[in-house]
Amino acid sequence: MTQKITVAVLGTGVMGAAMARNLLKAGHHVTVWNRTRARAEPLVADGARIAEDPADAVRDADAVLTMMLDGPAVLEAVRSAAPQLRPGAVWVQSSTVGPEGLAPLAALATEAGVHLVDAPVLGTRAPAEQGQLQVLAAGPREARPVAELVFDAIGQRTVWLGDDPAEAAASRLKLVVNSWVLSIINGTAEALALARGLGVDPGEFLGLLEGGSLDSPYLRMKAKAVLAEDWTASFPLSGAAKDARLIAGAAERCGVRLDVAEASARRFARAVEQGHGDKDAVATYLASFDD
Ligand SMILES: NC(=O)c1ccc[n+]([C@@H]2O[C@H](COP(=O)([O-])OP(=O)(O)OC[C@H]3O[C@@H](n4cnc5c(N)ncnc54)[C@H](OP(=O)(O)O)[C@@H]3O)[C@@H](O)[C@H]2O)c1
Fold this sequence. Notes:
The chain is built from eleven helices and nine strands. It is α/β, with parallel strands linked by helices. A six-stranded parallel β-sheet has the order 3-2-1-4-5-6, with helices on both faces. It has a three-stranded mixed β-sheet with strand order 7-8-9. Helix 3 (71-81) runs parallel beside helix 4 (98-112), helix 7 (169-198) packs across helix 10 and helix 10 (237-253) packs antiparallel against helix 11. This is NAD(P)-dependent oxidoreductase.
């Protein structure tokens, strides 16, 4: 029988809520905290306990899973909870924070006496709901047995990339993957926007690519959403905007010129200003037409 542990999930947005549900399904004890309490409340029906604040959530937790928007949000929540963290607890940090965002989190983990596992995930709403995420992980060997109980519940595959989370091997790889993901999202949105502008039937465009080397399941999924004007967030646009900034910033710091990434960051930022932040990232399509 699999060992049951107590897990605190901080951040119950699209991804955190789905991950908390899968931890509950696996039989673990789960306490959730979310800045906006109403967004955590549906998890009570699944068996979660709602905490009043991050400190209340992490008390007695064997593992703390953070899944908030960005590094500063994670830092603030875990710093406020630090006095209540169990010494030796395992902190599974799955929010996309980039190597820069990870550095202060690693310092905080050392200060608080907990084991940090840098554990960004690949996969969006549906894989998260189905417990089919891919986990990129880096953390100390003594933390792995507990971390793997979490990963077994939320994911289909874990790739271990190193023992020292401060090296940010997992967070660096995650940015590389997301630079590709954002390229497909923006490429899909702009191709469909151009088709609309030029009076081209989008079905002709998608039909030409079908089954060939230019085709991609992600293109199909995102194109279907645009054509149905279904903006339900799978990968929220505000998160994509944050990732685009992380990618452009990381490239600048390592001396690599990424013109498309910079343009992508500006495009997502404009879409957020236009009020599309809570929609799916492919709603960047709308930024081609709004003022
Ligand atoms: N969706 C995806 O496809 C996907 C895939 C892989 C990784 N990720 C990463 O997973 C993380 C969560 O993404 P998501 O898709 O679940 O986004 P989401 O649905 O927008 O949820 C964001 C979460 O962050 C919280 N948050 C935002 N700012 C905060 C702050 N200043 N203080 C405290 N909490 C704050 C939100 O709380 P409120 O409810 O109060 O706003 C919410 O719990 C992000 O780092 C994202 O990049 C997402």
